[in-house]
Each structure stands twice: as C-alpha cells, then as structure tokens.
Design brief:
By secondary structure, the protein is an alpha+beta fold. It has 8 helices and 12 strands. Helix 1 runs parallel beside helix 4 and helix 4 crosses helix 5.
C-alpha cells in the first residue's frame, strides 16, 4: 500500500513538475509574442514604405543617368539658341530629380530612426519592469535571508518536492538573467543603429545642401534662359533665328513620325485597331488635354513686333506648372522623351494614321508601348524648351500632316463645363 502511495505521489509530483515547466515556457512564449506583436505592425508598415521608396529612387536615378547622357549629347550640338534652352531645361530637371532623391533618402532614414527609437524606448520600459521585479525579489531575500529558503523547505511536501522547487527557482533566476542580458544586448545594438542612422541623416543633409547649392547655380542659368527668351521676343535677328530652328525641329519631328509609321508597317500585318476608325468620327467633340487660353494658334501667324510671319503646326495652351495632361482619345504611346524644340514630348498613335502630340511637359508619366484611354493622365504641364512659359504644345496629325487641333476639340465653353 505504501509503495502504491509512493508511486502515485511520484507520478503526481512529476506531473506537477511538467505542469510548472509548461507554465513557465508558455509564460515566456507569451511575453516574447507580445513583444513581437507590438513591433510587428510598425515594422511591416515601414518595410513596405521603404521598399516602395527604394523602387521610386531606382526609377528616378535611372532617369537621371539617361538625362545626363542626353545633356552631354546636346552640348556637342551646334550652339543654337534652342540648344542653349534645351541644356538649361535638362540640367534644371536633373537637379530637381536629385533633390527628390535626397528628400526620399532622408525620409527613409528618418523613418528608420524613429522606429528604432520607439523600439528602444519600449525595450527600456520592459527592462525597467524586469528590474523592479528582480529588485523586489532580491529585497525580500535580503530581508528574510535564509528564512526564504526555510519557507520553501517547509512548504514542500517532501525532500523531492523541495529539490524540485529549488530547481524551479534556479531555472526562473537563470531565465531572468538571460532575458535581462538579451534585453541589454538588443538595447546596445539599437543604440548603435540609432547612432549610425543619425550619422546617415547628417550625411544626407550635407548632400542635400550641396544639391541646393547646385540648384542656386541653376537658378542663375534659369535667369540666363529668361534673358535668352527676352532676346528672342525683343530682338528680330534672334527671333527669326529661333523660328528657323523651330521649323527645322518641326521637319525632324515629321521625319520621326514617318519613321515610326514605317516601323509599324514593317512589323507583321496586324488587324485594324479596335476603335481606331472612330477617331475621325470624334472630330469636333474630342476633350481638351488641358484647360486654358490659347497663346499660339495653328497655321500662318503674323508677328506684329517684327512684321514677320510664322507657321505653327499645332497650338499652345497656356496653363500652370504640374497641371495634369490627359489624352484626348485611346491609343498607344509610341514616343515619350526629349525632342529638341518641344522639350519633353509624348506622341500617341490613335490608329489609321492619326496621332496626337503633347510637348513642353514638365513630367512624363507614361512610357513607350503603354496603351492609354481617353482622359488618362500622361504627364504634367511644364516649360521645357518653351519660349512662352508654362504651356502645353498640342498637335493632331494624320499620316504625318498637321491639322488644326481646334477643329477636332470640342468648343471650350462646352469643355469647361
């Protein structure tokens, strides 16, 4: 009977041992999970944001590299007035992009720094709580001395139970020690990370200051551009020279469209584009790419200042910087890049030989090969290679021949409703 009781007691004691151990493990796991849960949301959100910014950074940096190559190419061209305007416009845009990169990098680093500081603060709070817990325990042990161990011994059912309790206490103390050591280790690591991030912020601020200084230099170049525009508008010889250059650019643009048309025909014969035939049927009711007053009309125009004539293949619509530009009809983008005399230019192929052209853009928000629908945003109004400030240069062509856009667009009063 005694053996049976002893065996039952031993089994019960073992169960209690595993129960206590399981409880300790569950408690530890809960604490770790709770800590992880507190940090997970903010970290995941920041990670997604940083990854998005990094992708945008890469795209901008790629654009800058391409633009720098093109600036060097333009500088090797003849020293024409349009080329000078083109160089200044390109250089200014490059610096604007570089400044955007610095801003994004600064935002990314500051976001990381804020997250690390938050985690550091939370970790310090957790350590303080643990310190208080251990301090209370040590204070009790100090006051009671060996009495605490006597209490443990007296509360034990037998010697085996006493040994198990002592082991539990030892394990708990060991666990607390490891936890504190781990906390301090993480705190040290995060403090080091924070110092690195602070250094990065200072470095980026320095780079941004350098870029801002460069921008000041470009502002001077912009003044030079304004002086050039003043000469164009105020001096007959310069004005006539620019008009000849614009005519040459127009011929080059026509050659480009013809080359693109030929390239399309050389590709395997494709079925007619869906809706392409409808473009002609939309004559007179197509939406405006931007709202604004026409500052330069289509066709032959007289320049009253110098009593000279010029011919425009399109119209210029006065607007403001960064106003969205929308496509007038569905089609495929076949060109999206700088073009001398037109600045940043987009050409949309509407099928059956119909094209719409959008020039002097500040930003190009669509790429070659993209399909667009009427009303899609493809860029923003700018003044690249423009002699009339912030305007949208707009053309409609059929098989390379320019047509009056006003005849194709809906009346302005209707468009502005």
């Amino acid at each position: 009977m005694k053996k049976v009781c002893s065996r039952q007691y031993a089994v019960g004691s073992k169960k209690r041992k595993y129960a206590v151990k399981s409880y300790c493990l569950l408690l530890t796991a809960y604490c770790l999970l709770l800590t992880s849960y507190c940090f997970a949301g903010t970290i995941d959100t920041l990670t997604v944001k940083i990854e998005k910014e990094r992708q945008e950074l890469k795209e901008i940096e790629d654009k800058i590299n391409r633009q720098k190559t093109k600036v060097l190419t333009v500088k090797r061209e003849e020293n024409s007035t349009l080329s000078k305007l083109n160089i200044v416009s390109r250089s200014f845009k490059i610096i604007e992009k570089e400044l955007k990169i610095y801003d994004l990098k600064l935002s990314e680093v500051q976001g990381k720094k804020t997250e690390v500081e938050k985690r550091l603060k939370d970790m310090e709070s957790a350590i303080d709580r643990q310190k208080k817990f251990l301090s209370n325990r040590l204070r009790t042990l100090y006051k009671e001395g060996n009495l605490s161990y006597i209490k443990v011994a007296l509360s034990a059912n037998d010697f085996t139970d006493f040994i198990q309790r002592m082991r539990y206490i030892e394990k708990i103390a060991e666990h607390d020690s490891v936890m504190i050591e781990d906390f301090f280790k993480k705190q040290k690591e995060m403090e080091e990370d924070r110092l690195v991030l602070l250094k990065s912020v200072e470095e980026i601020k320095t780079l941004r200051d350098m870029a801002s200084q460069k921008r000041e230099e470009l502002i001077e170049e912009k003044k030079e551009k304004e002086e050039l525009l003043g000469d164009i508008k105020g001096k007959r010889i310069v004005y006539e020279k620019v008009q000849l250059e614009l005519e040459d650019s127009s011929h080059q643009l026509m050659s480009l469209i013809e080359a693109l048309e030929k390239k399309k025909k050389d590709i395997a014969v494709m079925p007619p584009e869906k809706g392409a035939g409808d473009f002609a049927e939309r004559k007179g009711i197509l939406p405006w790419p931007v709202s604004g007053k026409i500052v330069s009309h289509f066709g032959k125009m007289k320049e009253s200042r110098f009593n000279t004539y010029l011919f425009n293949n399109g119209i210029e619509i006065g607007s403001s910087q960064n106003v969205n530009i929308k496509t007038i009809y569905s089609g495929d983008i076949i060109f999206a890049d700088w073009f001398k005399g037109y600045g940043k230019l987009i050409i949309v192929d509407h099928g059956n030989g119909y094209y719409s052209l959008y020039g002097h853009l500040d930003e190009i928000d669509a790429g070659v090969g993209e399909k667009v629908n009427a009303g899609d945003i493809i860029g923003k109004v700018g003044d690249t290679d423009s002699i009339n400030g912030y305007t949208l240069y707009f053309e409609i062509r059929q098989k390379g021949k320019p047509e009056d856009p006003i005849a194709w667009l809906m009346p302005q009063r209707t468009a502005n409703r």
